[in-house]
Amino acid sequence: MAEPWSGQFLQALPTTVLGALGTLGSEFLREWETQDMRVTLFKLLLLWLVLSLLGIQLAWGFYGNTVTGLYHRPGRGHSSAESAGDREENSQDVSAPA
């Protein structure tokens, strides 16, 4: 048999949890406001991150095609089946006695 207070407890649970979260949030805000150096450092690092990402994006816009051209190796234009056949022929040539 269920006790009569368990229903009241379940009804009050969301209010209790929200109250605890509200208290925790207000405590965090008070701590945040008193730690001026921490806030300043956070803002500085966030600004540095955003500026770095913007710089990378800008540099890639200018030099992206050049970098891609340096590292892109164009193929011979054969299909994969022909390439596999070429590899088999090459491996036979190497293993054949001279």
UniProtKB/TrEMBL annotation:
It is found in: Membrane. GO terms for cellular component: membrane. It comes from the Eukaryota. GO terms for biological process: osteoclast fusion. PANTHER family: T-CELL LEUKEMIA TRANSLOCATION-ALTERED GENE PROTEIN. May be required for cellular fusion during osteoclastogenesis. This is T-cell leukemia translocation-altered gene protein isoform X3. The lineage of its organism: Eukaryota, Metazoa, Chordata, Craniata, Vertebrata.
